[in-house]
TrEMBL record:
Residues 177-255 form the Smr domain. InterPro entries: DUF1771, DUF7816, Endo/PolyKinase_Domain-Protein, Smr_dom, Smr_dom_sf. GO terms for cellular component: nucleus. PANTHER family: NEDD4-BINDING PROTEIN 2. Coiled coil: none annotated. This is Smr domain-containing protein. GO terms for molecular function: endonuclease activity.
Amino acid sequence: KNNTYMDMATKLKHKQLYDKFPGVDRQALDEIFVASNYSLIQSVLTINETLGVTSDEDSLENYEKQIVDIVQMESMQQDGQEDTTWQPVVEGHEDMYDRLRLVGDYDVIRREATVHYHMRQESFRKAKEAYQRGMKTVAAFYSQQGRAYAEKMREANERASWKLLQLRNAQCDDNTLDLHGLHVQEAIQVLKNYVKLKKRESWCLQKKQTLRVITGRGAHSALNIPKVKFAVEGYFLSSQLNYREVQAGMFHVML
């Protein structure tokens, strides 16, 4: 009985959403409705926000309450048989997200970032298509989704790089930095922070130090191009650091 009541309320709110925004792509409305946990109020607020329209939350709350009251009365007259004919149309990679829950493993976190990347690309593609079709509200919604996935991708890559950095450097001494496996931008940012820290340390101790920076030879990179190594050496040159390559993929930096 309760399931029937909930399904009726959901379908009625879903229909009201269609009626309220007849010019908005229905698939986008479905996705917003699901993302808002089937709340008519939150769905309308989200759509109005993308349109730049001010929402009257009190009116929306009263409106949704009226829907619930109507459904409650109707459900008392039903025979209790559940109707599950309506299902929201939602495209995406939800199954992939379920399978890629974070378990603390580096490879899994990187794969999670890859999923976010593909979701970002898909959202921006949909935003572009919607904009070209003149559906600015839908375009704004997908664009907002794309930015959210981009932030999730950045966070996942940051967690992955930090975990790998800890694993790689667990057995290293304080003057050694192993950048194996990091992406180029991650490696350069870590290196900048490391050099800055060691420079401050040298100044405080009033003594010279020799740092060992390991980049690897790029054996596992695409086309065997050592991108991290080239970027690191470029950083040394641009920062006018005194360095030398003691062996392939390993540098000594004199501070």
